Each structure stands twice: as structure tokens, then as C-alpha cells.
Amino acid sequence: MKRAAKTAVNLGLIQTDVAADPQVNLKKTLALIERAAKAGAQIICTQELFRSQYFCQSEDHKNFELAEKIPGPSTDAFQKLAKKHKVVIIASLFEKRASGVYHNTAAIIDADGSLLGIYRKMHIPDDPLFYEKFYFTPGDLGFKTWQTRYGKIGVLICWDQWYPEAARLTAMQGAEILFYPTAIGWHPSEKAEYGERQHSAWETIQRSHAVANGCFVASVNRIGHEVIKGVGGDGLEFWGQSFVAGTSGEILAKASNDKEEILIVPVDLAKVDTTRTHWPFLRDRRIDAYGDLTKRLVD
Question: What is the pTM of this model?
């Protein structure tokens, strides 16, 4: 008798604080991924731009020196690790595509060590201390999914997580899990008044993507209070709290707001089919009525 396909998979979320030295951060992240793999994680995701402090707090041309080619040294290291431990790795990197063209990019590496492809962040913010438009060209590869050894995944990055269109278009390609490498935190001066509301909004919107699309959502954030040398000011206090949401939006596991953690979360991909069958939002979409979504505003 033919055996049913295995649907259980362990997700690994790597939540860390970040040092000023990119090589230190790379070495630490590689070590934590290895620990996660040995603990049973099968699909492992880094936080956004894990190799450096969040340099977008200022507009400084020197920071372009942090960027690297893909494939390059970081992807080479992750590919070797993925092959050694037979794990899928999602690595968030500052990509130098060409002189003057840089992207905020995630590399997707399968369990045999092959580089399946990349996703370039589509939505680029420009807010106080989040001056990403200075550094990143908007992604031009669209929304994508990859069939990995352990499941079909979609990858979006940080600011993308506020857009239901991004989650929907990725889920429509069959994604069973949406991963969001993230770097988000509080302005210390605003935390007392707005902090709880800001975090709640961030978590709620991503849980809603799980509900609306009947899939798992994994969001991986950093921790730590980063005041960058040469920039000064109050810096940013990253709120951590990486989490995995189930197919009905329920929180399956959540990390702390101030500790480095390897969050390992078992999920059953069979629940995607079950949820989408019982809550058939994809079936009942009125695709004949959504044309105005391609417009900026509707009069």
C-alpha cells in the first residue's frame, strides 16, 4: 500500500540581537542555525538583514559597503550548512545587484544545498529611522513560491507584511507557509504611548493573512536596542516576539521581546487543505469584481 506523504514539519525561527561587526553576526547566525537543525528544525528562517545593525536609521553612502552579491560568500556558507544538515534555509541579505542597484533580498536554499531562488522586497518604507528607500530598489521579481523538500513556501519581507495583496498573491501560488523576515521596533520616545498598539497591529495583520489564506505564517524579528555609532539619537528598540500563526490565525508559539531564541515550532501542512476546504475563501473570491485593485485610488 502506498504510504501517505509526510505532512509534519518543524519550523525554526532565529531571533537574535545584532553586533556592529557583520562577520560576528554571520558566524553567530550560522551557529544558531546549526543548533536549530540539530534540535529538529527543518525549515529555518533568519531575521531581516541579520548580518548588520539596522543601518537604515540614517542615509549614509558608506553603508552600501555592507551589501554583497547573490550568490556570494553568505549564500555559499548557508548552502553548505543546508546540505550538511538537510535543512531548508531562508537567509535575509543586503544584495548588491549592480553599481547603484541594491535590494533587500531573501535567498531560499533547499535541503540539498541548492539555491532555489531569491525574493526581492517589493514594498519599501520611508519613515523616521526606517529610511529604506535610500538603499533599496523595489523588488522586480514579483511574488513567488518555492517547492522545498519539506513544503511549499512563500517569502515576503517586513514592510510587505502590512499588505494583504502580497500575502494573497503568494498564497494563490500554493504557499503553505508564509515567512516574513523582519526588523521592526519602537521609537523609545513613543513606546509608552503607542508601543502596545503598534505591536498589536503588527501581530494582528499577519495573523489575518493566515486566516484569509488558510496557511501558516512565520514572522522572525530581531531584538535589542540599536543606537548606531555616528547616528546617535535614541535609536530603535526592536521588539522581538517572533511567532508562528496557524491556519486559523491562532498563535502556535511566540518568542520573548528581549531574549535571543531559537523558536522551533511543529506544524502539520495537512491543515492547510483542511482549513481551505472548510473556510473556502479562495473558492468564493469574486475575481470578476477586483479590477480596481490595480488602481491607486477609486473615484
Answer: 0.97
For the question of residue 48 being annotated catalytic, the response is: yes
- Cβ-based neighbours of 107, under 8 Å, separated by 6 or more: 70, 74, 75, 78, 89, 90, 91, 93, 115, 118
Is there a cis peptide before residue 22, judged by omega within 30 degrees of 0? no
Cell numbers linked to 45? 528562517
The neighbour count for residue 127, using CB atoms within 10 Å, is: 11
Nearest to 30 by CA among 62, 72, 77: 77
What's the grid cell of residue 114? 541548492
Q: Cα 159–60–236 angle (5° rounding)?
A: 50
CATH of 8-281, one of 2.60.40.10, 3.90.25.10, 2.40.50.140, 3.60.110.10: 3.60.110.10
Residues 6+ apart with CB under 8 A from 250: 207
Q: Do 234 and 188 meet the contact criterion of CB atoms below 8 Å apart?
A: yes
What's CA 130's distance to the chain center, in Å?
A: 17
Q: Which of 45, 48, 96, 226 is catalytic?
A: 48
Single out the catalytic residue among 56, 95, 96, 121. 121
Of the residues 45, 56, 158, 215, which is catalytic?
A: 158
Condensed to tens digits (0 to 9), the pLDDT of residues 234-279 reads 999 999 999 999 999 999 999 999 999 999 999 999 999 999 999 9
Active-site residue 121, yes or no?
yes
